[in-house]
Amino acid sequence: VCVASSDLPACQAIGQWDTKVIMAVCRPRHQLQQPRHLLLVAFDQHAVHERVLLEHLAKRWSRHPRRRQCSRARLQSASCRAAIRFGDILRRRECAELLSLLRHCSAPFQCAHGRQAVWPIARLNPLIDEGKGDAADYILEALRSAVPTPAPISDSVSGPSSEQRAFSSTFLSDRELPSLAVDFKVCSDIF
């Protein structure tokens, strides 16, 4: 499961998770013949904004002959200091705007320092009916209403599997997505 830069225009922001990550659904262009195939993708909000700012500063500085002397390290540092931080709350509209700006970047999958900024999380099995409208809204609603929240983690055999517990406890914020029982393949080595 992978995301290419050509897939970014097809990414729709779902919202923010844990005030650190922008979650989005994306329909990979190389799979357009399968219109129901979607990917759940995580974007590091700080790294994404840092990349957008770095490329904006680099373009602005390159237009001024006196400023061309400015080192890449100084531009990286300035973009890092000015970027959105973990803990900053973003509305869905702001998440969508950042993703829109990211698709115009020359290196959209790395922060200003070269750290990975984007992770494909899961391939979502066919969930979208053609007349449903916004795929992100549909996926978010499907994630929220799939199944009642699992019982608290316990050692009993009747509770959720250890895989379900690990996924829900380390990946999802209970206040954002209270349940997840959608049939998809989770990439286990993401974070």
Automatic annotation (TrEMBL):
UniProt GO cellular component terms: mismatch repair complex
One of the protein's GO biological processes: mismatch repair
Show the GO MF annotations: ATP hydrolysis activity; ATP-dependent DNA damage sensor activity
Under InterPro entries, the record lists:
MutL/Mlh/Pms-like, MutL_C_dimsub, MutL_C_sf
What name does UniProt use for this protein? MutL_C domain-containing protein
Source organism of this protein record:
Macrostomum lignano
Instruction: Print the organism lineage.
Output: Eukaryota, Metazoa, Spiralia, Lophotrochozoa, Platyhelminthes
